[in-house]
Here is the input.
Amino acid sequence: MSEAQPVQTAGDQRPHSIFGSAPRIVTERLILRAFNGSDYEPFKAMMAEPKVFEHLGGKPINDEEAMRRLSMYAGFWQIMGVGMWAAEDSATGELVGQVGIFDLHRELAPPISDTLEMGWIFAARTHGKGLAREACDAVLDWIQANIGACDLFAIIGIGNAASMKLAERLGFDRRDDAIYKDEPIAVFLRPA
Here is the structure.
């Protein structure tokens, strides 16, 4: 695992790592790495799976949105020093998910701005196998080693019981629900 000293940007009270790209993290079954252009098709396919998109707006993403998200995931690291990792099955080399931390400046009521958010999405074929937990644990370890103690939010679709259960196992506590894009959303906080 790479090491970095926490730094702050002007006017920002949150610590940021000094990474400009997702550092490689190897777990028992996964390789967490930077997204790249070859991830476009498998990423788009994963985001078109009904069990994946049902809690992410209710419809699959189109080609444009898939490219926008991949570009955004790479850009997070350049702008914030943190971001999303591609989760690759170490045995097969397949893209099986995404996990990371970011601040999208979401228009939530009540707001969660100026606090990092953690998110994860995994392919339907991986559900129930503990891969999301394995990836999230690795990211939380990375945060502790490279950023230090910090609050983390997670927002989860109201009907996504599996992600809510995972959030609780990761140390997140459910707070009052919020409104996001005119819909209720569950808000979780993992205090520093």
